[in-house]
Amino acid sequence: MASAALVVLALVVQASGFGTGFHVLSIGLAGAVLVLGTLTGVRVANASIDDAGLIVGMNRIRAAYLAIDPSLDEYFLASGHDDQAGRQRGRRRSSGDVRGRHGDRRPVPRG
After folding, report:
1. Residues in the chain with pLDDT values less than 50
2. How many angstroms separate the most distant Cα atoms in the chain?
3. Pairwise CA distance, residues 5 & 27, whole Å
4. DSSP run (H or E) holding 89
5. CA pair distance 70, 7, nearest whole angstrom
6. Which tens digits make up the pLDDT trace of 78-105?
């Protein structure tokens, strides 16, 4: 949005110079860019809060599986705890990482 606003301002300057129209348009576009940037920040913050809640839910499901069968611990790559440390461990793990919670390589079950 910001780059498009700059292109529009450049075209207006080429067509009519730095007159009143340019000033009015630049203030309007700056306001629009500010509002869209702020709303985008709010949207990203809300998505992060939702992700944290989903991570807690997945950790609770893992904890339930581990309560049923503790031998499954070697197959889980993320934490089975829903505390702050469990959320951080789940958030830092990349999708291509196949290391266990203790840093050692774990077998990945193939169906």
Report:
1. 94, 111
2. 75
3. 11
4. helix 84-92
5. 60
6. 777 767 766 666 555 545 555 555 555 5
